[in-house]
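From the methods appendix. Each design record in this collection lists the discretized structure first, followed by the designed amino acid sequence. Records were kept in a plain field format so they could be parsed without special tools. The example shown here is representative of the layout used throughout.

RECORD:
C-ALPHA CELLS (196 positions):
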C-alpha cells in the first residue's frame, strides 16, 4: 500500500542521486509508453510525475520517496527519435550508468505498450538488462486502449520472444494507468522487492 508519495529530486548526473541508503525500484521503457502515468496511478497522485501526450517529456532521473521508506524512480524514455543524436546519446549514457551503478536498485520495470507487436528496441533493451544482470520485470501498459483479446495476443507474442531469449521469462504485469488494471498485483510485487 502506498500511503505517502513525495517528489525528492531530479538529476541528470546519476552520481548526484540521493544516498543509496534505502531500497529503490525504477520504471523504464520507450518514450510515451506510460512510465510517468503508471507512477501516478500506483501512488494515487495524478500530478506527481509529469506526463504528456508528446514523447520525450521526462528528461531526468526523478526520485520519489514512498511511505518515507523507499524510492520509486521515473526515468526518461529510450528510443525517442526526435531529439538530436547528442541529446539521445546523453540520455542513453545517463540511463545506462544509472542502471549499472545504482547499488540500491532492487528492481527495474520495463514498460511495453500492449497495443504493439514485439518491438526490436524493447527486446534488445531486455536482452541488455539480462546480459548486465539488471533485475528486470515487464509491465505491459495501456491495456484499456484495445480489446482484451488484442492485449492478450500481443502479450503472448512478446512472452514467446522472451522465451526465445531467456531460459526463464521475466515476471510480467498487464496494466492500465487509466482503469488501474494490474496496479494491486504490481504493488504487491514491488512491496516484496523493497522489503528484502
Ligand atoms: P516520456 O516521459 O516522454 O518518456 O513518456 P512516459 O513513458 O512517461 O509516458 P506518459 O506517462 O507521459 O504518457 C504518455 C501518454 O500516454 C499520455 O498522454 C498519457 O495520458 C497516455 N497514457 C499513459 N498510460 C496510459 C494508459 O494506461 N491508458 C491510456 N489510455 N493512456 C495512457
Ligand atoms: Mg515520463
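DESIGN:
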Amino acid at each position: 500500500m502506498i500511503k505517502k508519495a513525495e517528489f525528492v529530486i531530479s538529476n541528470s548526473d546519476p552520481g548526484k542521486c540521493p544516498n543509496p541508503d534505502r531500497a529503490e525500484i525504477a520504471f523504464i521503457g520507450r518514450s510515451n509508453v506510460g512510465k510517468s502515468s503508471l507512477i501516478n496511478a500506483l501512488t494515487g497522485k495524478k500530478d506527481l510525475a509529469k506526463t504528456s501526450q508528446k514523447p520525450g517529456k521526462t528528461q531526468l532521473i526523478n526520485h520519489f520517496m514512498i511511505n518515507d521508506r523507499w524510492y520509486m524512480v521515473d526515468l526518461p524514455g529510450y528510443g525517442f527519435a526526435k531529439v538530436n543524436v547528442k541529446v539521445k546519446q546523453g540520455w542513453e549514457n545517463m540511463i545506462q550508468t544509472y542502471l549499472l551503478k545504482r547499488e540500491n536498485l532492487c528492481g527495474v520495470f520495463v514498460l511495453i505498450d500492449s497495443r504493439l507487436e514485439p518491438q526490436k528496441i524493447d527486446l534488445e533493451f531486455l536482452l541488455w538488462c539480462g546480459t548486465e544482470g539488471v533485475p528486470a520485470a515487464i509491465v505491459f501498459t495501456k491495456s484499456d486502449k484495445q480489446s482484451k483479446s488484442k492485449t492478450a495476443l500481443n502479450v503472448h507474442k512478446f512472452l514467446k520472444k522472451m522465451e526465445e531469449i531467456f531460459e526463464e521469462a521475466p515476471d510480467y504485469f498487464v496494466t492500465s494507468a487509466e482503469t488501474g488494471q494490474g496496479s494491486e498485483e504490481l504493488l504487491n510485487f514491488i512491496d516484496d522487492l523493497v522489503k528484502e
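APPENDIX NOTE: The pocket of guanosine-5'-triphosphate (ligand 1) is lined by residues 31-37, 51-53, 55-58, 76-77, 141-142, 144-145, 176-178 (CB under 6 Å).
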